[in-house]
Predict the 3D structure of the following.
Amino acid sequence: MNDRRQEDTMTPVGAQLARYGIVFLLLFFGVMKWTRAEAQAIQPFISHSPLSSWLYGLLGVQGVSTFFWMFELTAPIAIAAARLRADARSLYEARQS
């Protein structure tokens, strides 16, 4: 019986650790896109892609890196906000009843 209680408390803690661990890593990778070294490091991968190689002619090396940074910043914010949205919704529903 004691193991079940521990499992019930550890599951939400593990989920939160996983969620915010992913958020931290994505934010870290996104922030690295601001550096010149990272912009140059991703250039070979993006410049040889048929879908995104045209971006270099339009934005330049640092501009393309910043473009991808916007997406890498949006994902962790959305992941973190999903939990906050669920908490806000449950508070709202509790006030309505």
User: Anything to note?
Assistant: The mean pLDDT is 81. The radius of gyration is 20 Å.
